[in-house]
Amino acid sequence: MKKPIITIERQYGSGGSIIGKLVAEKLGINFYNRQILEMTAEKCGISAEYLESAEESVPTSFLYSLLLSSNTGRSMEDNLPLSDKVFLMESRIITEIAEREKSFVLVGRCGSYILEDKGCFSVYIYAPPEERVKRAIEEYGMPSTKAENIMKKADKRRETFFNVNTGKSWQDKELYSLCLNSAELGDELCAELIVKAYKEYNEQFK
Questions:
Q1: What whole-number distance in Å separates Cα of residue 199 and Cα of residue 41?
Q2: What's the whole-number mean pLDDT along residues 37-58?
Q3: Topology of 6-205 in CATH?
Q4: Scanning 13, 87, 173, 180, which has the fewest C-beta atoms within 10 Å of its C-beta?
Q5: What's the CA angle centered on 107, arms 195 and 1, to 5 degrees?
Q6: CA dist 133 → 7, 15, 93, 154, 165 (Å)
Q7: d(Cα 157, Cα 9) in Å, to the nearest integer?
Q8: 34 touches 48 (CB < 8 A)
Q9: Which residue ranges make up each domain of the chain?
Q10: Sheet holding 30-32: strands in order across?
Q11: Which of 132, 142, 144 is nearest to 183 (CA)?
């Protein structure tokens, strides 16, 4: 039976995490974002900060092939680069959560791909670059001289992590059930629209 899980992919500075929390509060369900990384770090005995850097660093196919060929006695998973191991571990944790919880909100971590067969309601939050830079400065406390560069790097990391692990395009809006411009709509209205659409979607499985 498919489960009405909400997954959110978001551009940096679009307010995706804030909107996700609002949605979870309105629906009275759990919210997961960085908690997934922290759970993975705890299992590995490695700091969340270190895993976060490994999470979105993608090895080249040449180095990956070389690693496999030089460690033929080890299992396939042992041979994987740390970025791939992190994705596998996060996927298991997310799947475990989906098995025990009826519904929840998950931000990032390729959630829409990992939970695709469970009937997740996938959302993409975006906004114009200038509005995202403004939010980064005013709400996230980023230095005005560095905010744009930070935004571009964060988007690139998220896009690479998603594209490599799913084989799909992070910015392809056809992948999502709902796409919202948070700069035009505002965080509160975005959350309300997601809740309304989610409830309509949920009716399909009753």
A1: 34
A2: 73
A3: Rossmann fold (3.40.50)
A4: 173
A5: 65
A6: 24, 11, 32, 12, 27
A7: 13
A8: yes
A9: 6-205
A10: 30-32, 104-107, 6-10, 121-126, 178-181
A11: 132
Q: Quick: pLDDT tens for 84-123.
A: 677 888 899 999 999 999 899 999 989 999 998 887 899 9
* Class of residue 106 by CB neighbours under 10 A (exposed 0-12, middle 13-18, buried 19+): buried
> Average pLDDT of the chain?
84
More confident residue, 56 or 189: 189
Task: Estimate the crossing angle of helix 147-166 against helix 82-100, to 10 degrees.
Answer: 80
Within a 10 A sphere around the Cβ of 51, how many other Cβ atoms? 20
Distance CA 131, CA 180 (A): 14
How far from 82 is each of 29, 41, 56, 181, CA to CA, in Å?
32, 12, 10, 34
Structure tokens at 183: 């700069």
What is the model's pTM? 0.83
Separation of alpha carbons 99 and 122, rounded Å: 18
Taking CA atoms, 92 is separated from 33, 40, 87, 106, in Å, by: 15, 9, 9, 14
Max Cα distance, the chain (Å) = 55
